[in-house]
Write a structure and sequence with these properties.
291 residues; alpha/beta; 9-stranded mixed sheet; 11 helices; elongated
Length: 291
Amino acid sequence: MRIVVASGKGGTGKTTVATSLAQVATEGYAVRFLDCDVEAPNAELFLHPSLDVHLDVGVQVPRVDAQTCTYCGTCAEICRFNAIAVVGETTLVFDDLCHGCGSCTWMCPEQAITEHLFVTGTIDSGITPDGIAFARGLMNVGQAMGVPILRELKKRAPAATSAATGVRRALEIRDAPPGASCPVVETMRGADFVLFVTEPTPFGLHDLKQVAAIARELSIPAGVVVNRDGIGDDAVDAYCAESDLPILLRIPMNRCIAEAIAAGRTLVETDAVYRSQFKNLLERILTEVPQ
């Protein structure tokens, strides 16, 4: 069972919801948490994992053996990303443009190309005090492609385990990046449910529409959490009603919540009321997913 928490817009409360949902889920599930915001992961500030496993990840880029290459140009012609150019008797490789598809290696008639790892980021993982198997991806400064890191994060993150009695099955929660671009699509890919976090403002509605369209395209069931409820207008409610998106939880605009988050505490650690509300939220999500 995989749940993605997405928002479209940064600063909406996505990580606030994802971390609290993970904590209440440990009462019945072996939980794995993936922080997929590879540009600025911050869920560890709330879940406090011991990150003791470090892994370099990246893209397999081509390296050309100048002694074997005949400079026929086949590799440059096949590369749809313009990551290779043949100029006279020199074959140039632009690592930052390479997507690691391997087409040049496959098509080289002289077998002059080999692949080597070009490190673009890291994956750090460990266990939280709650027993959550935690992993985050972090893109190196100056890199532009987060999707290869996300793919590795989904494959290589440690599996959820639990020795607690009464644990029913494994549950994975992914904290998505902001926006509605390729990294968000990759985070949603393979998910069983998407939980959108939004705020009742025109900006929140605009970004909710964008990520909701992605979930519809991927045929993933979805629901909504309205954060900072009480501000703005009722346009988000109207859109959810028109789009058959159930509003599963409302979190009020509250100074105490802001102070707790600033201090590194999750919602369920702040007030026992939220623990019961997030339990209900999790059960509601499970009812929306075909078993």
